Amino acid sequence: MPPREMPIREISDRIAIQDLLIRYTVAIDTKNYELLDTCFTPDAHVDYTTSGGTKGSYPEVRKWLEQVLQVFPITMHFISNTTVELDGDRATARTYVINPMVFINPDDSRHIFTVGAYYTDKLVCTDDGWRIADRYEEQAYLEGSLPEALQMSS
Questions:
Q1: What stretches in the chain show pLDDT beneath 70?
Q2: Topology at the third CATH level for domain 8-149
Q3: Which residue, 5, 56, 115, 139, has fewest beta-carbon neighbours within 10 Å?
Q4: Which residues have C-beta within 8 Å of that of residue 136, sequence separation ≥ 6?
Q5: Is the pTM of this model over 0.85?
């Protein structure tokens, strides 16, 4: 049996969603928060709590990202294995993430650790293109440790 032929709209939507997910990684890693604004709906809900982050409305989480990411001169988000389920102007996606992060210690040495996670997204197609309306990051593993300066005392 030959593979199912995809309609042009489905192909276009899948490419646009992949572009959106890549744009998110570029925005985070370059700390370009105006570009990040093009990734989420204004009322999006974002949850990074399994990786020690925050959760809330996109504007609240954006403000938190601007503060916390300034202590990491290098972050690199690698995404792969995205599965997308389309339903008209809505979609869900699950994406694998590998995220090495570099922190500069007070003695100028580097502390490098890597977060492995999954992004589970609810997406909507807006007049401006596909946007994330809800993101849940599920941490799968942490390789290395958080820098001492960022660990919460018990």
A1: 151-154
A2: Nuclear Transport Factor 2; Chain: A, (3.10.450)
A3: 5
A4: 47, 119, 120, 121
A5: yes
